Amino acid sequence: MNSSAKKQAPQHDAIIIGAGVCGIYQLYKLLELGLNVKVLEAGGGPGGTWYWNRYPGARFDSESYTYGYSFSKELLQEWNWSEHFSGQPETLRYLNHVVDKFDLREHMQFDCHVKSTAFDESNQFWTVTLDDDRTFTTRFLMTAIGMLSAPTMPTLEGTDAFEGQSFHTYNWPHEPVDIKNKKVAVIGTGATGVQVISEIADKVGELTVFQRRPNWCAPLHNSKIDDKTMADIKANYDEIFERCRNTPGGFIHGPDRRKYSEVSKQDRLALWEELYAASGFGVWIGNFRDVLVKEDVNAEYSKFIADKIRQRVNDPELAEELIPKDHGFGTRRVPLETRYYEAYNRDNVSLVNINDTPIERVTKKGIKTSEREHEFDIIIYATGFDAITGAFDRIDITGTHGQKLADKWIDGPITYLGLQSAGFPNLITLAGPQGGSVSTNFPRGIEEAVDWATDLITYMNKHGYKRIEPSEEAELEWGEDVKHTYSLSLIPTAKSWFTGYNSNVPDHDKLRYLIYNGGAPKYRERLTQVAEHEYEGFKFE
Ligand code: NA7
User: Fold this and answer.
1) Domain boundaries, the chain
2) What is the pLDDT of residues 170-195, one digit of tens each?
């Protein structure tokens, strides 16, 4: 009997997990190819990050007009951003607009929590199983599951015992939360904590911030976009996106090509003052190129920023508590803020340094530190994510020969180009670990990854290839390339999600090479080269 006669055909050409910024665009591209595609999304609607993170103050740190999709001129011309750094509600409206404009919603299935997926060798397809045991089969499985979508709670005793309201910022309720006159705690002072604290300080009764390590924060300088400015932006989109294409981070901000040592003290200070007064990430990535590379130069810039913090916080002792001492400026993600430091000048805001008075447990009424019990109505956990690999670990992914992805990646991800992993054929990890989009202005990076993956599928269809996976040699080499990019800056000198640390997840207490830090242009060059060489490093069947 002919064994091929027994083979089943998959239900779908492609399943995309996730209807966020990445999944939306990948769906659009695959539908253009005429494929049968389904998107499975855990949320009740599209938007991913912007669907979930509804906490007060959630907004872009990227200029709105550099964050929108660039693929449709019509979309660019019809959408008006109201602020230079859009807030979450507007961004979610934008993503829903995109979904409806391009008739994508009918291909999306919401409230679908993918529990597991396994590659079926005999049929050469993936079976995807949801929490409710529904299954789907697909030839290509594409993950668009986000880098910061696996929220982590502190491993504190008593979190369930608290009788007030409490939530992780990622799971902020959809119904309005009444914070007026309430006693509120925020645990965590990363980019999220800083946004929440700044936004609610003048709206709550009392705010207590539990800080483990301060971050270097700098002003966002957000403002409204008026009609004339929006018209100028629309007229200049080509230039804006060209600029983003050529900067390492895919932002409009690129490094000053001069070195710190080549510039007089006066000119240095002038640039730093200018950056601090300007909007967006220029203060981090628009600097002299050696600020994030040389420790002594970084220390000078850190001193400059520390003085800014001292000028903004009235109480000198409190100012010192808010100045990082364990890492240099920009070696962790720089939270951009709006009157964050000024919040601490308010009588209703206090800071608890949990290194001095550690949290012992959460109680029915609040938080008990080694010093005393603090009573609260609301506890906000802004405690971050099991970044980049966490969302993969939360799905039971089985490749060929019964191999689990979580086992393969136990000491850190192993990938080729951040887009595939050997032993997991036809699984394309869009925006996955070790990819280029992780360290870029996200939509700029993902548009390239998605375009590349779409071209790959077109190529496979043209040549009649059914299956693709990288060679182990190609992965090894890519792993070394990624590792090398960590030696190019001071990023590995700090413990953060950039370097794979998370104190709330077992075994995430060592450096893991999660991100390609070589910059978007170099990553693009590499992707192009691989495609031009008949997808070298990949094996087709
Ligand atoms: P981050 O940047 O990982 O920040 C998490 C914060 O929570 C950080 O201040 C942590 O302190 C603190 N944290 C985490 N666990 C604990 C425990 N157990 N006890 C006390 N404090 C804790 O996450 P964000 O959500 O702010 O930002 C993530 C990204 O989203 C951000 O970079 C942007 O790209 C968007 P630590 O510094 O580890 O001492």
Assistant:
1) 3-46+104-150+387-467, 250-313
2) 999 999 999 999 999 999 999 999 99
Contact in structure between 282 and 275 (CB atoms under 8 Å): yes
Q: Does residue 193 line the site of ligand 1, with CB under 6 A?
A: yes
Distance, CA of 15 to CA of 141 (rounded, Å): 5
| Residue among 178, 209, 183, 187 at smallest CA distance from 377 | 183
- Mutation pick for ligand 1 pocket among 383, 501, 515 (CB with most ligand atoms within 8 Å): 383
Residue 311 burial (CB < 10 Å; 0-12/13-18/19+)?
exposed
3 state DSSP class of 186: strand
Identify which of 85, 124, 451, 133 has the alpha carbon closest to the alpha carbon of residue 280. 85
Half-sphere CA count of 340, side-chain side, radius 13 A: 30
User: What pTM was computed for the model?
Assistant: 0.97
Select from 440, 523, 445, 518 the least CA-distant residue to 483.
518
Q: In whole angstroms, give the CA distance from residue 351 to residue 307.
A: 20
**pLDDT, tens digit (0-9, with 9 covering 90-100), for 402-450:** 999 999 999 999 999 999 999 999 999 998 999 998 889 999 999 999 9
> Token digits for 487?
């030696």
- Using the CB atoms, write b or e for 388-424: b if 16+ within 10 Å: bbbbbbbbebbbeeebebeebbeebbbbbbbbbbbbb
Does ligand 1 lie within 6 Å of residue 212's CB atom? yes
Are 195 and 335 contacting, i.e. CB atoms less than 8 angstroms apart?
Answer: yes
H/E run at residue 302: helix 295-312
Measure the CA–CA gap between 435 and 520, rounded to whole angstroms. 10
Q: Does domain 3-46+104-150+387-467 have CATH number 3.30.70.1450?
A: no
Q: 10 Å Cβ neighbour count for 266?
A: 7
Ligand 1 centroid to Cα of residue 190, in Å, is: 4
- The one-character DSSP state at 83 is B
